[in-house]
Amino acid sequence: MANHGDEAPELAALGGALVINMGSVTSESTANYVRAAQAYNAISRPVLFDPVGAGATKLRRKTVKELMAECYFEVIKGNESELSVLWGEVNTQQKGVDSGTSTSSDLDKATLTMKLALRERNVVVLTGKIDYLSDGTRTYAIKNGSEHLGRITGSGCTLGTTIAACLAAHREDKLLATLSGMLMYEIASERASRREDVKGPGTFVPALIDELANVAAIAQKPDDSWLAGAKVERIGIKEPDSV
């Protein structure tokens, strides 16, 4: 939760990952985002960018352009509206952080994810009822997750930190690390929603934290039983001639 960019070189040396979450945008925060990301870039440590509400205001659009120009992000995670802004669709208008009603097909969403990953040479996650994941060559649809995730605040932020932890732990394949984080988080949410003590969003949050810890403990044994409910589909998309 460090907010000062000058701390980043020391923190990066500890071997973790950085999450840039554009929840609150100020002139100071933008400068700190850039300093922090560049510090992690300098020693090849992973940086995840969550362009929260990227299409909500002119200021956020400007901030996104600056960050994309000045920093490299191993993973970009956002909803359809946010990723559309990053791709360059000028008519995208968000109402706050919500994506809004989509008129895009599943193939459209998968293609947007793939094209952005190909252009940025990284991994892109498009979140929604169905999540899409791509590194520009491999593209997947992930159909896990509890409906309670859409009813609580901070679910996307928590997903981002879970992915970042996996990126820090597994440096060989950032798409595989990202997929692992997504599945760990979303399967934990399904386990939480099935608990008898969960009656709604309020009781779901602590249950989710418990189940994330439980899934992590199972995975460390190692034990792949937690993956039994994974719903992952490879999507074949022809790469465009140019991006």
What is the terminal separation in angstroms?
Answer: 35 Å
Shape: globular
SSE-based structural type: alpha/beta
Mean pLDDT metric: 92
Helix content: 40-55%
Spatial strand arrangement across the major sheet? 1-2-3-4-5-6-7
The low-confidence runs, each spanning 5 or more residues with pLDDT under 50, are: none
SSE sequence, one letter per element: HEHEHEHHEEEHHHE
Radius of gyration, taken over Cα atoms and rounded to an integer in Å: 17 Å
State which percent range the strand residues make up. 5-15%
Number of strands: 7
Number of DSSP helices?
Answer: 8
Give a short overview.
The protein is of the alpha/beta class and 243 residues long. The chain has helices at 8-12, 27-42, 58-70, 80-87, 106-120, 155-169, 174-193, 201-219; strands at residues 18-21, 47-50, 75-79, 123-127, 131-134, 139-142, 232-234.
Give a verbal description of the structure.
Helices cover 46% and strands 12% of the residues. It is an alpha/beta fold and 243 residues long. The protein has a seven-stranded mixed sheet with strand order 1-2-3-4-5-6-7, with helices on both faces. Helix 2 (27-42) runs parallel beside helix 3, helix 6 (155-169) crosses helix 7 (174-193) and helix 7 packs across helix 8. The chain starts with 7 loop residues before the first helix and ends in a 9-residue tail after the last strand.
